[in-house]
Every structure is written in C-alpha cells, then in structure tokens.
Amino acid sequence: xxxxxxNFFTSGADGLVSFSRTFxxxxxxxxxFVLGLSxxxxxxxxxxxxxxxxxxxxxxxxxxxxxxxxxxxxxxxPDGSFxxxxxxxxxxxxxxxxxxxxDAPIVREGGKxxxxxxxxxxxxxxxxxxxTGFLAGYPGGVFRPSQNIxxxxxxxxxASGLKYVPTQPTVETLNGAFADAAGIPExxxxxxxxxxxxxxxxxxxNVRTLNPNQLASRADVAAFLCQATGTTGLVPSQYIAxxxxxxxxxxxxxxxxxxLTNIDSDVLFSSQNVTDAIQRLHELNFNTIYPTVWNWxxxxxxxxxxxxxxxxxxxLVTPIDESLDPNLGTQGRDMLAEMIEQAxxxxxxxxxxxxxxxxxxxxxxLAKRHPDWLTQTGQGVKIKKEGTHDRVWLNPFxxxxxxxxxxxxxxxxxxxxxxxxxxDDHFGLPSDLGYDPFTVELYKKEHQGKAPxxxxxxxxxxxxxxxxxxxxxxxxxxxxKDRKNNAIVSVSPNPQxxxxxxxxxxxxxWERRGLVEELVVQIYRDDxxxxxxxxxxxxxxxxxxxxxxxxxxxxGLKEKRVSxxxxxxxxxxxxxxxxxxxxxxxxxxxxxxAAEPSDRRQTAFRLLFPMPAEPPDLLExxxxxx
Length: 626
Description:
Layout: H1 2-11, H2 13-23, H3 25-35, H4 62-70, H5 90-100, H6 123-131, H7 151-161, H8 170-177, H9 189-197, H10 218-228, E1 255-260, H11 271-283, E2 288-291, E3 294-295, E4 298-299, H12 304-310, H13 335-345, E5 349-350, E6 359-361, H14 365-369, E7 384-386, E8 389-393, H15 399-415, E9 420-424, H16 437-446, H17 459-483, E10 488-492, H18 496-503, H19 507-512, E11 518-522, H20 528-535, H21 538-544, E12 549-554, E13 556-557, E14 560-561, H22 564-576, E15 581-585, H23 588-591, H24 598-608, H25 618-625
Parallel strand pairs: 1-2, 1-15, 2-5, 9-10, 10-11, 11-12, 12-15
Antiparallel strand pairs: 3-4, 6-8, 7-8, 13-14
Helix pairs in contact: 1-2, 2-3, 4-10, 5-6, 7-9, 7-10, 8-9, 11-13, 15-17, 20-22
C-alpha cells in the first residue's frame, strides 16, 4: 500500500484510475475524504482540484458549492458530480466541519467512541469536532458515524461549535421566522434561534419552513457552511431566514427592472448589443426594462413628431460623445422596435422611459428653433447647470410644449407594442423656474392681476405650478389610455419631498388621483440608515396600499462605483419591507465599470433572482384596490 501511494502521488490522473480499479470504488471514496486536506499541499490531481461539478449548473446554491470546493471544504465524486440532493452522514459532516474550522479551539477532552475504530477514515475528524464542541455522541458512548444528519442537528452543531447564543427571546424569534416553529425539537430551540439571528439558517424553496427533522442534503450543508464561514453573498438572500422580517412572496410577482440609456453606455448603439443585453438579462431572470426614448433633445426611435419639430427623426449617440458618428446605430434600424420584439420573446416587459421630460440641452436644435418655448428664473436666466452641462427647460404650462410632449408619448404608444410609458422628475420643473412672460401672465389671470411671489419656494406659488403639472399629466394619462388602455403609466421620481420641492413633481397627488399605475422611487443613498428612512416614509406606505411600489437602486455611475454588498443589502431591505420589487440604474454598471469583477457581479445578480418571476400584475392590483 505504501509503495502504491508513492506511485499515486507521482502519477497524476492515471494514479486515480489505477487506485480505483485496484482497491474498489468504496475504498476510493474513503481515500478521498481522508486525503482531502493533505492533497492540497501535495501534487493536486484533476479530481481534487475540481471546483465545478456536472450536476450543479443552475442550482440555487451553485456559487456557494463551487466556492467551498475551491477552499477545500467540500469535495465532489470521481464522476465529476457533487450530488447536491444526497444526504450527509455524521462522519461526512464532521470531516466538513474540520475543513471549515481547522483552528477551532479545544473546549473539552475525549472524543473516542465505541463505534469509531481508530483506523476509521473519519476518526480524527470525529474526535476533533467533539473536542471543539461542534458534535457530541449518543448514550452508550457511540457516535453513529453512518447515520444521516437531520437539518436541525447540523444547525445546532454549528451554533454550538461557534458559541452562538440568542440575544432576543427564543420564542419570538422562532415564531417570527418559521411557520413550522412548533415542530422544532425542544433541545434545539435556543441554538436554532441563535443560528437564525446569525443568518446561518437557509431554507429552500420556502424560507419560512425550517423542516427541522428533514435530512440535510449536501446542498443544505454547503449553504450552512457558506453562511457560517463568512462566505456571504453566495446564497440567494430570499432563502436566508431572518429575525422579524417580512419575506417576499415572489409567486405573486416581483419587479426586476433595469434602466438602459445611451449615456456612458453603448448598449443601444447596435442590434447585436441589444440582442446580447436582452439575452443576458433573461438569463439573470430580469423581467422589465426601461429603455430611454427621449433625451438630449432627440428621440431614440424614428419619430415623425421629432423630425417636424427639431429637424431630426432619431439620434442614439449623445452630443457629448464627440468622438462618435452622430448617425451611429440609426441606419436601417429601429432600436425600440428591436428591443420590444426581442424582449417580448423572452417574456420581458418594455416600458419606454422619457428620460429628459421637459429638459433639453441649451444648444440643442429644439432650444434653438423654439426659444419661445423656454421658461426662466425670476432674474430672466434660462440656462441651468446640471453638472457641467448647460440645460434649458421647456415651459410645461405652454400649450405648444404640452402638445409636443403629448404627441411624442402618443406616437410611441400608437406605433409600438409597448407595455407602458415611464416619466420621472423631469416631467416637472425646477422650482426656481416659471417666471417667463407666458407663465407670469397666466398666474396673474388667475390671481386678480397679482404677480407671482419673488420667492420661488413660496408655498402657494409652488402649489400652483405643481397643480398645473398634475393637470397636464391627467391629460397625457387620458391620451395614453385612449390609444392603449392596458399600457401602464409608470413614474420613477425621487422621494416625494425632493420631487415636489425641487421639481414641482407631486407624485403623491398623482398616485392618489389614479394617474400612476407603477411607482418606482429612486432612492440613491449610500448611507444605509438614510436609505431605510426613505423606505419608511408615509407617502410610500400610502401608495403601496393602492398600487405596487418598487424601489430604484443605484448600481453605479461612470465616476462612482457601488459595491455588491451595498446593492445586496438594499435589495434585502426592500424585500423585507414587502415592496413590489426593484429596478437598477443603470444597465452598464450591473457588471461593468463596477467595484468587483464582471463574473462575480453577474453571479451576485443570479443569486438575487435565482428563479424566474412575473412582474406584479399592476392592472389587477389597481382593480383589487378599488
């Protein structure tokens, strides 16, 4: 045997085959467990260096299994499989624990059992897990190494070995987290509560069901170990039990959206880019896209309305991309038509986004051709800075402007099989504007000749302008419904206070009047406490009682990278509070221009949305709320 082992360590993969043939398959499996750790410091062979398995592709805990295999905490089988649904014996679990926690401190002596001979393949591991407090034996001095371990025992073992104790009332924790809390054995309740507090408990497919006495599968144990060893972010968050949280029921639908734009992104510039994006989003179980169709004073689809007003029918490249051909991606193609056709083939909704609303670049053809359409400050200034860019705002109170924007919206709804239309804060007006002659005269007419207050934040002046914009949205809403009744009117504003105070976009009133059928509030906050405080605002809670409400989450900008941990934490917070889902800004920063490598980012989004889900049935929700 010794001579054979010497040959084995120098013969690579051939040695594996020879060993298996000589000593048999069962002996080979024993040998695998015994040498699983030591082989890592010797000459690795194909079997021992394997970190990808042929039976876990698409599995809900695939990234976790592969990461544990890389770290030598778990092994596969000679046929390249992992067997995620197979049970785990107490001896196998002991071996995994030793690999996962090699430096666990000794807390007691002993560890010899009558049914574990000294030459048993896992005798050392069993002794160590006993001495470190992870596992104990049974009456009569036996360990029962071949007995399959239930989920409850595996979790109790981890909580015991890691010295976890509950900090909150056990009964409240268990009853709040698990629908089957009554079935948790009495001896284990404190440990399970502690494990729940530490987010060690993973339950698939229903996080509310612990199934304590069900045998732990190899996938279960892998998930427990990933959570226990700090290998976080590899287990889908919706399967991790938590204390006192509301678990989303994705069977009722969940918004999984993303905005696609032409700023710092080339996703819209070619048919192939569109195809690749739709395919990738489909693979990651997204169900809604918001492609921009109006910004920089141009439409991103061939528009007769825009051509009549601005002289140009379509432009995909922004004027700030001076190195690019202004006609890039427009020849012989219709970006919006392509996107709708391909997305619908993948059951993905398409809701075109009127990104710039009433805003336009100061040097745009739209502004140059129609200077009388622009509004201004009390000092007569028409140009506003947005970052480094000069902007102007079309006057939302002027009939010609209103007709132009409405014609663009109706054109999209009439000519394309869209699932809805989306507006944001730019379907409003910065609060220091509105002092142009037309608006001043309109105000005077309705106030017995009295001029508007010089203070742009005067409460009555803010309310008057906001109400006018609300009246206009009412008109646009009706025009959309006249063309396509089932087209969703979506709004993606900032939180209400900012939206109303700074942009006169009073979406809380819009929602109460039934003018909003999908609300996706942009809460782009790095500070998690501020993020949470925005989620708790009463206007959001009120809107949720009428329509599904999603939350916009920032995944990054060109000059600002957002970490996976922040994204995952915010998605978890949204789900725990029962919102309808999330949408990310923006496509290019999902896995590009990011804080982590592209493959890791994509793995993370696969974990966020491990299974397909329909978007919330918004029209059905509206009917049920009436």
